[in-house]
Give the backbone structure.
Amino acid sequence: MHTACSPPPPLTLRHRLSPARTLLAFSLVATSLLFFAPPARPAYSPSPAQLPTMAPSPARETPAPPPAAPTKTEQYTLSHERWEKAVAYSRAGYTLYFIYYLCVVAGLLMILRLGIPARLRDFAERSTESRWLQGILFLPPMVLLMGLLDLPVRVYWHHLSLRYEQSVEGWAAWSVDWIKEELLQLLIFTILGLILFALLRRSPRRWWFYFWLAVLPIALLLTIASPYIIDPLFNHFEPLSNKYPALVDSISRLTQHAGVPIPPERIFLMEASKKTNELNAYVAGLGPSKRVVIWDNTIQDTSPEGTLFIVGHELGHYVLGHVWQGFLYFAAGAFLGLYLAYRALNWSLARWGQRWKIYGPQDWAALAVLFLILQVGSFFADPIVNAISRMDEHNADVFGLEVIHGVVPDSAEVAARAFQVLGEIDLSDPNPPPFITFWLYSHPPLAERLVFAHTYDPWSRGQSPKYLK
């Protein structure tokens, strides 16, 4: 459950977004042979109503004044200082998003114009006649080169995250994570690249379809294996019951109320506080690896009731099958993306192949052209991916509101307050431009989500809730 939108620069393997967005983004990742990699903040200060009050000295007996009525959180509000920081940080992120694509596309055009992919191909072909060994010699340097194209943007984004106290991860730890990610990419992309070029040579006209068939099980396997293999490389996970048994009991009551009991062993705590001050939770995995993950920051900086709402939101993703839906979206997107890439690759090589010294789709150097095509396609696909993600996130909000209704007192205020805390700590943009919301936001703007928490009340109107009847 992120606040509003994902970090604009390329997302890293260890970041989690909504299930639909994650799998849809992976469709572009798999087809382009590159995973798009998706940001010390002061601790949240409780409102005066949440602070313990000091008892007055008993000089004389006087009746205690009645407690002040708690202030309703009906709108997303920030102090002047936090407002300015939220706007500046968000707008910098929006700018970096577009700079990222500009840098990658311009960088790929430059290395193609300089003939670097062709030189790497010539080196691989001179070194061995084995096509598999040629691929092993060609693919890792190309993957590393393409990974370096977005490094300046990612470095500057981390600099901003530190400057605006969004991250607590030092440069040494950040560099280690980046190296881990690059090594993972080298392994996965080399395997995918060898499969792709084997299919290109066997079926020049239908390679895109056969590669799509090959990618589906690989994507499914990665989705299942990621919580076991990839995620622990970047963060520490443990069963939530190890540190917060009372919270697990509360979640169990919540899931029983929803009629979808989730075993405690599928609810995990992630030690996010070692790297970030962000608040988040997410659903990951499929089948045996399916789980709900709660960041330790979320538990520490929100009220127990607010944490239950956030968990309820993630239960919505879990119960409504958003991960499986996302996989189906991925399959459809990959099918269309690969076909369009096939057509665009042939057209591009016919027009500029001789200038780039690339002799056809079966040429190892054509990988750079294919990646360029899919980078451009990814840019224009982002609004579609995000629109689907916003729909899923809204539905998860509805589920979260319904599942805590009748379990948590004043549930609407609890949800609104949780959004307020998320926004204050994560520096969510209080008023994002409509175009930016349309193009970049994987979640509805936080201010809209907060207002919705107060306006969604089918029970008082005698209406039936959407999910929990």
